[in-house]
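User: Write out your own:

AI:
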Amino acid sequence: MHLTAFENATRFRDAYVIAGAPRIAEIGSQIVEGQASLRQLFPQAERYVGYDFAEGAGVDVVVEDPYSLPAADASFQCVLSSSCFEHAEFFWLSFLEMVRICAPGGLIYLNAPSNGKIHRYPYDCWRFYPDSGMALQRWGRKNGYGVTLLESFTSFQKNDCWNDYVAVFCRDEGAPTLIPESRILSGFADYKNGYMLGVNGLLSGSELTEDMARREIAARVSLGALEVTW
């Protein structure tokens, strides 16, 4: 995975201080050569299972149907997916499977691109925007799960083209009161369009992507509408 995806996953681990040695599942776990793996962030996990539709480094279970995971209901305390949902033709079905295998009171972590280059592995279908997490919450509840969005945001680029959309969910509607009040956004500022449970409106809201904002500034400079001093 790219640098900011790994950094955002590290922020998730640190903010939520996942207690003890939880059982963790990762959806889309294949490690691309030269890139980091989420698995290395959780060395104390009692059980860490990586699922993917193809064999490769980091893959423990190859799934025949990516929308039907070979795992029992409520079998993991934490379910992760990073840089995967953009490739899933029916990501909403993938999300329901993540919720299904997550234990009551457990956490679901999602990272998917909001902006970035086309990368077909083997498909590239989707990008995710500020309301995506709330839409997934509604989809989960429509299907009988009390999943609750705890926070979401779009992080800034860092040495590449990627703006990551990050969302953290609790498996249940009532259980967020059991989750520590610490959030990624409590100590992180390099983002736009953040959401936190219990806070009205978007935090650091913006209608422009980071690339669009740069182009707007460049255009104003070229037209003489904005003076730049060095």
Remarks:
- Residues 3-205 form a domain with the Rossmann fold fold (CATH 3.40.50.150).
- Residues 55 and 150 are 33 Å apart (CA to CA).
